[in-house]
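In this supplementary section we document a worked example of the pipeline. Step one takes a protein sequence of length 73 as its only input; no multiple sequence alignment statistics are reported here. Step two produces a three-dimensional model, which step three serialises into C-alpha cells for compact storage. The input and output of this example are shown verbatim.
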Amino acid sequence: MTGQNVTPNQLTRVFKIGATRIIEDASMSMLDNEAIRDLLKTSYPEIANATIREHAENGMRVIEFLPQPGRKG
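The serialised model returned by step three reads:
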C-alpha cells in the first residue's frame, strides 16, 4: 500500500500547459481546477483566459489549459 490517500475513483491530476506537465501534490489536492489556474497563472500567464479541458489518460485525470488566441488592435 502506498502512502497516498487516493480512493479508486479519485485519480491523480496532471495539469498540462503546452508541453509542460505538472503532477498534483498534496498542496493541490483540495483545490479545484479554477483555483489551480489562479495558482499557476503567475508562472504561466497564458492560462489566465485559457479553456480547460479534462480527460482520463493512463489512469490519471489530465487537465489541459488551452490558450485562446488574443485580439490585435
